[in-house]
Design goal:
Layout (H helix, E strand, L loop, with lengths): L2 E9 L2 E9 L8 E10 L2 H7 L11 E2 L3 E9 L9 E5 L14 E5 L3 E3 L6 H23 L8 E5 L4 H12 L4 E5 L5 H6 L4 E4 L16 E6 L3 H9 L1 E9 L13 H6 L2 E4 L7 H11 L8 H4 E5 L3 H9 L6 E5 L3
Parallel strand pairs: 9-10, 9-12, 10-11, 12-13, 13-14, 15-16
Antiparallel strand pairs: 1-2, 1-4, 3-5, 3-7, 3-16, 5-6, 6-8
Bound molecules: NADP nicotinamide-adenine-dinucleotide phosphate.
The site of NADP nicotinamide-adenine-dinucleotide phosphate has 31 residues, from helix 1, helix 2 and helix 3.
Length: about 325
Amino acid sequence: MDNRGVLVEKIDDEFVCNFKKLEMPVIEDEEILIKVSYSSINYKDALSSIGNPGVSRNFPHVTGIDLAGEVVKSNSDKFQGGEKVVVTGYDLGMHTKGGHQKYAKVPASWALNIPEGLSESEIMSLGTAGLTAALSINELLSAGITPKSGKIVVTGATGGVGSLAISILNKLGFCVVAVSGKKEKIKFLNSIGADEVLLRDELDLEGSKPMLKSEYAGVVDTVGGKILSYFLKSLKYDGVATCCGLTSSHELPTNVFPFILRGVRLIGIDSVECTLKKKQAAWERLADEYKLNNLDTLVTRIILEEVPTKFQELLLGRLVGRYLVKVSD
Ligand SMILES: NC(=O)c1ccc[n+]([C@@H]2O[C@H](COP(=O)([O-])OP(=O)(O)OC[C@H]3O[C@@H](n4cnc5c(N)ncnc54)[C@H](OP(=O)(O)O)[C@@H]3O)[C@@H](O)[C@H]2O)c1
């Protein structure tokens, strides 16, 4: 068996990321060795590739915060050779070498069997982004938001989480308002399920009004900062916003009025450390009631060797939708 993958090395205080020959992982107690068939590209992987200490501190490091594949060796009663598994989050691709390699080892406690209804390529087309979109939408539904409640805003619309959230909400019958920085992608956003598109540079993000017109029933926010603040002020009475990301900013300049005058709720989403049980329930919904028939229009297929270049494009804001990485046959 021969291992290859995407390695980030620290050389003379610079981080370099290349496709390379790697050592074969050796499993310890309660670990499994997985032959990775697919992984994907997420924002966090690109941060890891440039040595962002908020994501990875151990170098050399293999990127890839999610993977799907087949167990080839197990030192745990939880899995046997031949089982098809999915792993997302926990420490995978952060300080533990990730899914952008042909063979990866993980604690058995991080893995789940791939649910019926999703293939290995489908589950990684969704990947961490799809899981996060599902967790966000689960919270809106649990809070009582229905298509009759009103429009749902999705920010970071052309990104992985945003594009999947738009398509799932559309499938569930919601009227979806996409917020994007990419004017040239309006048609694409309409094609994946957005009923309206707002361009972020046309929003009055610097306005000082403590509240704005009551317009939206819910928000799936992936960007944070002034954009999330703007839409919190635009939520209707009993509106709900979920917050999972920070591509605009980690700061949230807001005030208490939306919360105390309109009963607005802001719910945090974490797909990384959440329980395996919660992840499993979300995957089962993605395989069933949230299942998308248009995944091919959202996904660009690439091979492992292309990953380092894609990280550079992602950091320049040039990627659209999801990137599925074929790792091995
Ligand atoms: N909490 C969790 O468990 C979890 C899980 C997955 C991801 N995340 C986080 O969620 C965020 C989105 O992840 P992703 O995988 O969807 O990333 P992505 O594919 O890179 O998409 C991010 C999108 O954000 C928008 N954007 C980029 N720069 C921006 C800026 N300066 N201001 C406002 N919007 C900007 C862009 O969309 P438009 O041009 O269309 O606006 C971009 O496509 C990231 O911060 C990621 O770390 C969190």
